[in-house]
TrEMBL record:
Organism for this UniProt entry: Amycolatopsis deserti
InterPro entries named in the record: Epimerase_deHydtase, NAD(P)-bd_dom_sf
Protein name: Nucleoside-diphosphate sugar epimerase
Family per similarity comment: Belongs to the NAD(P)-dependent epimerase/dehydratase family.
Higher taxonomy: Bacteria, Bacillati, Actinomycetota, Actinomycetes, Pseudonocardiales
Domain NAD-dependent epimerase/dehydratase: 4-272
Length: 349
C-alpha cells in the first residue's frame, strides 16, 4: 500500500501537500519538527499519521522512514534570524543525506521528491532572464548553497543506490493571505531593508555598493507615506522589476506531479506561475483591490528574477492556475479558499 512520507509537513507548502495527498486517497505520514506549534494545521486531517523527527536526529528519521513507499522532502531551514550558519548546511544538506540514509535503511522507496529553489541560481544577480533548469547554479549565499548541496547529495545517492527521484525548484512560494501584503510600501521596504544584512542576505548582489536603497524610495514617496500604499519599482530605463511568484496551490500541484508522473523520474523542474509578476502590475492590483494610493518608484538598477517552466509543462503536464491577481482575489474572498495558511496560531487553524 502506498504511504508517502512528507517532511516539513507543518510548513507553508507541506501542510497543503498533505491535504492534497489525503484528498487523493493516499496514505500519508507527516514528519514535523518535535514540538512545532504549526503542526496544529494537521489537526483537521485525522487520517494523517504524524511523526515527530528532527532532520538532525538519524534515529528519529529512520523510524519515520520505516514502511513508507514514497518521500516528499520539503523540510528546510529558510530564514536566517538567529539561526547559526552551520544549521543551514546541517539541515538542508546533511539533513537530506540523513533522510536518504533513513530511506535506504527502510528498504528503499519508489520515488523521492526533493523541493529545491530558484535560490540555487543566485537570485540577487541571476545568470539569465528567464532562468531555465540548465542555467548555472552558483548561488553565493549559504541558503542557496545548502539547498544546492541537497540536490547534489540526492543525485549521488540516487545514482549510487538506485533511488528513483525527481526534483522541483520553486519560485517564491506565496500563500494567498501573504499575497495581499506584497507590492506595498512596507513589503518593499522590508525587501530592500535586507541590504542591512549585507552578505547575510540571499540577494546581497542586488544591493552591492547600494546599502541604502530604501532611502531612495522614501525620497520619492515621502518619509511619512502610508506603509500600506502600493509601490511599483522600475529600473533607470523604466523597465519594471519582476519577481516570479508561485501560488502555494500550484506548488502543491507541481509536487504531486513530480511524485506521480512517469516523466518526472530523474528530472529537475522549475515550478512557478505561468508568468512572472511585474512590480508595477502587482502594485496596481493591490491599489485597485484595496483602494490604496499607488506610486511608481525609479531605482538605480533593474531586478528581474524569472524562470521558464517549459520542462514541467512538457514532462509533468504542469499547468499553473494562479497568478498574482487570482491569489489576491482568493484572499479577499470569504468563499472558495480552502488553502491552509502559511502560519496558524498555536491554538489551531
Ligand atoms: N517559501 C518559498 O518561497 C520557497 C521558495 C523556493 C523553495 N522553497 C523550498 O520549499 C520547501 C518548503 O518551503 P516552505 O515555504 O513550506 O517553508 P516552511 O518554512 O513553511 O516549512 C519548512 C518546514 O521545515 C521544517 N523544519 C525546519 N527545520 C527542520 C528540522 N531540523 N527537522 C525537521 N523539520 C524541519 C519546519 O518546521 C517547517 O515546517 C523548502 O524545502 C524550501 O527550501 C521555498
Amino acid at each position: 500500500m502506498t504511504k508517502v512520507l512528507v517532511t516539513g509537513a507543518a510548513g507553508r507548502v507541506g501542510a497543503n501537500v498533505v491535504k492534497r495527498l489525503v484528498g487523493a486517497g493516499v496514505g500519508v505520514r507527516a514528519m514535523v519538527l518535535p514540538g512545532d506549534p504549526q503542526a496544529a494545521k494537521l489537526a483537521t486531517l485525522p487520517e494523517v499519521e504524524v511523526a515527530e523527527a528532527d532532520l538532525l536526529d538519524q534515529a528519529a528519521i529512520d523510524s519515520a522512514c520505516r514502511g513508507v513507499t514514497h518521500v516528499v522532502h520539503l523540510a528546510a531551514q529558510l530564514v536566517r534570524g538567529d539561526t547559526p550558519v552551520d544549521r543551514f548546511y546541517d539541515i538542508n544538506a546533511f539533513g537530506t543525506l540523513r533522510l536518504l540514509e533513513g530511506v535506504l535503511r527502510g528498504g528503499g522507496v519508489e520515488r523521492f521528491v526533493l523541493a529545491s529553489t530558484d535560490g540555487t541560481y543566485r537570485p540577487g544577480d541571476p545568470p539569465a532572464v528567464p532562468l531555465s533548469e540548465d542555467a548555472p547554479q552558483e548561488p553565493a549565499d549559504y541558503y542557496g548553497t545548502s539547498k544546492l548541496l541537497g540536490e547534489i547529495i540526492l543525485r549521488n545517492h540516487a545514482a549510487q543506490f538506485d533511488i528513483p527521484f525527481a526534483m522541483v525548484r520553486f519560485a517564491t512560494v506565496v500563500s494567498p493571505e501573504e499575497a495581499v501584503e506584497q507590492f506595498r510600501l512596507r513589503w518593499v521596504r522590508e525587501l530592500l531593508g535586507r541590504a542591512e544584512l549585507g552578505r547575510d542576505s540571499n540577494i546581497w548582489q542586488l544591493f552591492r555598493g547600494r546599502p541604502d536603497l530604501w532611502k531612495i524610495i522614501d525620497e520619492q514617496v515621502g518619509g511619512d507615506a502610508d506603509d500600506r500604499m502600493a509601490v511599483g519599482l522600475v529600473g533607470p530605463d523604466d523597465v519594471p522589476w519582476t519577481l516570479h511568484l508561485l501560488d502555494v496551490r500550484d506548488a502543491v500541484e507541481g509536487v504531486f506531479r513530480a511524485l506521480t508522473e512517469p516523466g518526472a523520474l530523474g528530472g529537475v523542474f522549475n515550478i512557478a506561475a505561468a508568468r512572472p509578476t511585474s512590480f508595477v502590475a502587482g502594485s496596481e492590483i493591490i491599489a485597485d483591490r484595496f483602494g490604496v494610493p499607488c506610486a511608481v518608484v525609479r531605482m538605480p538598477m533593474t531586478w528581474r528574477l524569472e524562470m521558464t517552466i517549459d520542462a514541467a509543462r512538457r514532462s509533468l503536464g504542469f499547468a499553473p492556475k494562479y497568478d498574482f491577481a487570482s491569489m489576491v482575489a482568493t484572499a479577499a474572498s470569504a468563499v472558495g479558499n480552502d488553502v491552509i495558511p502559511a502560519r496558524v496560531w498555536a491554538g489551531g487553524v
